């Protein structure tokens, strides 16, 4: 399915509040239909670091705020362990509406498709252009592929200091931030209990690379 994309819904402004409000009217792909609301990024426009997740989860969809559920709590713990102040960061997602499958009363997360990620990218780029971050942190494969290209392999490049690929025509940014890709915090929660501590420590190690760039 080819979607019209968000571009025609994104106002020409670098006011994050105005962008967030406008995102509520986006019909750039089908995901607005079943979600409660768009979940825009949160944080200060003066933030030097922007964290990009995948999409809002069940709790974020209801609250209208990114990273307030279990993955957000784990991210907060990892940021604290890496010595990064949550007030210094802006957090957002590659896709602004929650994609899920209804199973009884539960809403089960579904990974957004590449076309949905591409459809939603104008919002992300508007956030980047409003903030001009020095560092962009990509949390998980969806965010990493959204900005580094679909052939990007997270396992091969996590924790490295990268730059957005110039040849990626979908990325048209005024600035050239440093980029660090790492795992999604929910992958730490999903893994086998005996591996969790190791996975958490590896996430923190990648975030220490981010801290060194700030
Ligand atoms: N997972 C994400 O990728 N983003 C959120 O906001 C919450 C969970
Ligand atoms: Fe628009 Fe993104 Fe929501 Fe799709 S997911 S409707 S592109 S805001």
Automatic annotation (TrEMBL):
<dbReference type="InterPro" id="IPR005273">
    <property type="entry name" value="Ura-DNA_glyco_family4"/>
</dbReference>
<dbReference type="InterPro" id="IPR036895">
    <property type="entry name" value="Uracil-DNA_glycosylase-like_sf"/>
</dbReference>
<dbReference type="GO" id="GO:0006281">
    <property type="term" value="P:DNA repair"/>
</dbReference>
<protein>
    <recommendedName>
        <fullName>Type-4 uracil-DNA glycosylase</fullName>
    </recommendedName>
</protein>
<dbReference type="InterPro" id="IPR005122">
    <property type="entry name" value="Uracil-DNA_glycosylase-like"/>
</dbReference>
<comment type="similarity">
    <text>Belongs to the uracil-DNA glycosylase (UDG) superfamily. Type 4 (UDGa) family.</text>
</comment>
<keyword id="KW-0227">DNA damage</keyword>
<keyword id="KW-0411">Iron-sulfur</keyword>
<dbReference type="Pfam" id="PF03167">
    <property type="entry name" value="UDG"/>
</dbReference>
<keyword id="KW-0004">4Fe-4S</keyword>
<keyword id="KW-0378">Hydrolase</keyword>
<dbReference type="GO" id="GO:0051539">
    <property type="term" value="F:4 iron, 4 sulfur cluster binding"/>
</dbReference>
<keyword id="KW-0234">DNA repair</keyword>
<keyword id="KW-0408">Iron</keyword>
<feature type="domain" description="Uracil-DNA glycosylase-like">
    <location>
        <begin position="40"/>
        <end position="204"/>
    </location>
</feature>
<dbReference type="InterPro" id="IPR051536">
    <property type="entry name" value="UDG_Type-4/5"/>
</dbReference>
<keyword id="KW-0479">Metal-binding</keyword>
<dbReference type="GO" id="GO:0046872">
    <property type="term" value="F:metal ion binding"/>
</dbReference>
<dbReference type="GO" id="GO:0097506">
    <property type="term" value="F:deaminated base DNA N-glycosylase activity"/>
</dbReference>
């Amino acid at each position: 399915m080819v979607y019209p994309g968000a571009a025609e819904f994104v106002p020409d402004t670098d006011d994050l509040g105005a962008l967030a409000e406008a995102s509520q009217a986006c019909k750039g792909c089908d995901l607005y239909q079943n979600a409660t609301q768009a979940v825009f990024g949160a944080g200060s426009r003066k933030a030097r670091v922007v964290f990009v997740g995948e999409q809002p989860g069940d709790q974020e969809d209801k609250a209208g705020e990114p990273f307030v559920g279990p993955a957000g709590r784990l991210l907060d713990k990892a940021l604290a362990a890496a010595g990064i102040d949550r007030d210094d960061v802006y957090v957002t997602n590659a896709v602004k509406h929650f994609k899920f499958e209804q199973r009884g009363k539960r809403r089960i997360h579904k990974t957004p498709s590449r076309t949905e990620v591409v459809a939603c990218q104008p919002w992300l780029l508007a956030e980047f252009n409003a903030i001009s971050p020095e560092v962009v942190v990509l949390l998980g494969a969806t965010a990493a592929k959204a900005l580094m290209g679909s052939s990007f392999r997270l396992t091969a490049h996590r924790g490295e200091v990268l730059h957005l690929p110039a040849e990626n025509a979908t990325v048209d940014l005024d600035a050239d931030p440093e980029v660090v890709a790492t795992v999604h915090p929910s992958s730490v929660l999903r893994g086998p209990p005996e591996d969790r501590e190791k996975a958490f420590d590896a996430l923190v190690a990648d975030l220490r690379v981010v801290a060194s760039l700030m």
